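Here's what a typical entry looks like (Beta-amyrin 11-oxidase-like):
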Amino acid sequence: MVGVEMEVVISWVLWIMMMSGATLLAFYFVVKTVGRRMNEWYYDFKLGDKRRFLPPGNMGWPLIGKTLFFIKDLRSGYTHPDLFINNLVFKYGKIGMYKTHLFMNPGILVCTLEASRKILSDDNSFKLGYPETTLTVTQSPLINVSGEEHKRFRRLIIAHILGYNSLAKFLDPMENIVIESLEGMASRSTKQPIMLMEESMALSLKVIVHIFIGSYHHHNTIKQVEHLLGALDDAMFSLPINFPGFPYYKALKNRKKVEEILKSIVEERKVMIKDGSEVTEKKDLVDILLEVEDVNGRKLKGDDIVNTLIMLFLAGHVTTATALMWSVIYLTKNTLAFKKAKEEQEEILKSRPPSQKHLSIEEIKKMVYLTKVFNEVIRVMELAIPLCREAIRDVNINGNFNLLRK
């Protein structure tokens, strides 16, 4: 009798396990096939007949869409910067445009030169359209201005920070930082491997922060700004979750601290200029931005200067480090290019006067071959820098697909 009851219990347990497994399998099938299509069905219904003008693609899960996949692939950008787009190309072919859903918004990924040029140059049909996290972290003064005002502000800033004349102001401290970093790497290389991307990030961070505020301020202040700014990159393209443990939460806290430091620096510099105590030969970017005037004599406000400094950091930090890393990699692999670049540098050093101890702008102008090498690195390294635009009206691209306004 006991044996019969035991068999009944075992049969009952096996039946429950089979039903549970079947239920889980059915649930998985429903979630995988139906749940992942709900987002696309919703937008198909919302767009109606317009949906036939959109390119192929995948809208992903409801609300989050393909955001998690995009962030994962973007974070691997040091080795595979275009992985997200490559997956779309593999699945849908070399169309050049793909619909998707990122950062809680539907969108179109455009990855051909002509279509991208058309979008980026058409201020009448497009405006800046970055995710909430990017807008909040950068708070760029260029975000909420008109197309013409955007161009005016951009010309105003770029004219004073690009070119050989601007480079000359920062050349000596840049050279010292690079030498110090290389000597540090050399001393550690006998004990442990050099993590090239980490070293490139640290180097670019030191150079940029010093150019911004380094002429007058104590080493501890510069190190504090470097530490705080380092956490902002991770939140640029992340989920807008303002909760402890998430990149967005940490970035907002760090940004407030950076703002306080930079505002005090800007106000201090204003007082120095007003009192005539400014040391002109030691200008940094804060000084330059305080002096900048447009054709009507208008100067930048203090908040605009702070936001511009943070924006320029975020725009140049990772891109500079990535370009530096790939330059080393490509030169290491291409022995002929490395040999020619090295010979050019040796010739420049041979012609240097004995009294000259530091790099000069004239010497940089002589680095013709190295400039070509660096330009070629930028061309082939496929650095993934998402440029986001929002359509103001429905736009047809190359007669194939439409970009639809919200």
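The chain has a mean pLDDT of 78.

More examples are in the samples folder.
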